[in-house]
Amino acid sequence: MSEATLSETSIPQQRLVVTEIPGPRSREIHERRRAVVPPGVHSVLPVYIERSHDAIVVDVDGNQLVDVCGGIGVTTIGHTDEAVVAAATAQLNKVTHTLFTMTPYEPYVRVAEYLAQHVPGSTPEQPYKTLLMNSGAEAVENGVKIARKYTGRPGVAVLEHAYHGRTLLTSSMNHKAVPYAYGYGPRAGDIYRAPNSYPLHDGLTGPEAAARTIAHLEKTAGAEDLACLVVEPIQGEGGFIVPAEGYLPALAEWCRENGIVFIADEVQAGMARTGTVFSIEQFGVEPDIVLTAKGIAGGLPLAGITGRAEIMDKSQPGGLGGTFGGNPVACAAAVAVFEQLEAQSLLAEAKRIEARFTAGLNRLKEQYPAIAEVRGRGAMLAVELVKPGTLEPDADLVAKVIDYASRNGVILLSTGIYNQGIRFLPSLKMSDELIDDVIDVLEAAFAAA
Ligand SMILES: *Cc1c(COP(=O)(O)O)cnc(C)c1O
Q1: CA–centroid distance, residue 164 to ligand 1 (Å)
Q2: Is 0.90 topped by the overall pTM?
Q3: What spacing in Å lies between the alpha carbon of 102 and ligand 1's midpoint?
Q4: Which of 53, 220, 328, 396 lies at a CB distance of 3.0 to 4.6 Å from 11, suitable for a disulfide?
Q5: pLDDT tens digits, residue range 35-82?
Q6: What CA–CA distance (Å, rounded) separates 348 from 341?
């Protein structure tokens, strides 16, 4: 690596606030943006970022912010990871595009091999097969499409509190029509939404919650009309909801008995974030199809649809693909991410982060009764805030804490359909010192609120 590149990427891993946040340069760019970018493309924190490395982003005013959002779980391996940057740069200088469905290239095949090696259920004798696309929503779209082709059935089952994207089909699958779908109708049809498992609120065991989900789907859809059930093993936008033990296995079993394709949407929870390569490994389920995106290519756009060969092979030649799907530069970056899983002990790092972060958050929970629960796995953690003594969501408090944190150089994001939670999606490079610093800022935020 040249010295110029090194000095550009090595940013001290410290929080540093030198102006108001957003600062004057950010505010100036924001004014220009208002003239040419529509408000529907909303930025939660209009602080314009110039550089980033590991767990720190530097804005155009020179503030160093601790990134506990990671572009919503995309920079899992850290911002501008050296191996990812080197691999993408090398590929950029070789070939940037040919179109895999015209004249293919090897990095695509290597990503498919890595996915086949890691997805639960895939074996060396019967490896799962992969289609690569560009975004999480495209992964969901194609997962549904492939399941429909395989089963010959139309129905798509989803869960309450789910989030699957912002295309027509996926925005119709989300729990929150507001803001994702309303006004953009007609929405896609044949989507059936069933109650999820939300232990803090429903008090049900996994098998009880699964029985409720299944009864609802059998009544509202009819099992034999369902092509697939799409579930986030740990719900992301819905509030980092970890289902009760036994919930997912019971759903998977019901799918198997009824010929319904079980699709795990691992777009947010996958790729080492939760301490296993895929979060569903922790629930003992082997999905028929696994969807990946967000963290898979260290910040470059790439998405995978990885499924049992029998299901994937059902689509006719030409039925699957897209101009940019599995772009060579994104694939080279993803290969580097897979190589770094072991080289940088990323699964162990996720567990380190979980231990340090949850210890700090649980200390805050003892002090502040508004924190109803600390939950999540690995580097996918959240607190749910309520009016003390009730389980009523306190979105105002969530907003206040996040606002205080961002003004003090910590990037946080809410979660949950009622904005009842604050989510923590640190990169796996975040040091213990930075985690402690984030907890200190949170403590001050709760004290101020
Ligand atoms: C973000 C997300 C998506 C959509 O991904 P995009 O890349 O934004 O299209 C789908 N599913 C889950 C679980 C997500 O978190």
Answers
A1: 5
A2: yes
A3: 27
A4: 53
A5: 999 999 999 999 999 999 999 999 999 999 999 999 999 999 999 999
A6: 10
